[in-house]
Design brief:
The protein has about 200 residues and is mainly α. The protein is built from eight helices and no strands.
């Protein structure tokens, strides 16, 4: 057997359990669909697209004068590697969506919605650390909504979430302290202890 064919067989063997899990989770999620959830899931899936996302970022920049612009800057920078990675993988993998709609430029793997939701969650958690459970929960709802609407498999949203979170974390590590205003940096540092004066 040629090396390329052997690698292909090994890859299929390794991914087979993941594909089976994807199908089982998809079946479970689709059986749980309910008319009362349709509007919520659609709003969650498409709530932060286009002008809505621009409005949220604009509000952050305007209302949080201390670090709003820096936070928005980090979010925009993080979006670049996030979406470059996602779009590159979409064209490489070319996975048909669960609802049967194949598209090379808009394939199922990985989920761009999940990637961007988790990237934004990481960036917002960097600014408002106590709010991280809320940001994580919102990102999870976005990811779940993509499965609920039968646009992605479980592995699609998991991969997308990992890409977004990793891209944002690296962006924060690389640029966070450079973009964060000096006043916020001073607030993060522990106070300097001044020795008492000699009597």
């Amino acid at each position: 057997m040629r090396r390329g064919a052997w690698c292909a067989v090994m890859l299929v063997s390794a991914l087979s359990p993941i594909g089976q899990l994807d199908l089982e989770v998809r079946s479970l999620v689709q059986r749980g669909r309910h008319p009362a959830l349709e509007g919520v899931m659609r709003a969650s899936s498409h709530g932060l697209e286009g002008w809505r996302l621009a409005a949220v970022l604009g509000a952050i920049a305007l209302l949080d004068r201390a670090a709003g612009p820096a936070t928005v800057g980090l979010a925009l920078v993080a979006a670049v590697p996030t979406n470059l990675t996602v779009e590159g993988l979409k064209r490489l993998v070319q996975r048909a969506r669960p609802n049967g709609k194949p598209s090379r430029s808009n394939s199922s793997f990985p989920s761009s919605h999940a990637a961007n939701a988790f990237a934004l969650a990481v960036i917002l958690s960097r600014r408002w650390r106590r709010g991280w459970p809320v940001f994580l929960a919102l990102a999870l709802v976005v990811a779940y909504s993509r499965m609920y609407l039968d646009r992605h498999y479980l592995s699609d949203v998991v991969a997308g979430a990992a890409i977004g979170a990793a891209s944002a974390a690296l962006t924060v590590r690389w640029l966070g302290d450079r973009l964060l205003p000096a006043t916020i940096q001073r607030a993060k540092k522990p106070p300097t202890l001044v020795p008492p004066r000699a009597l």
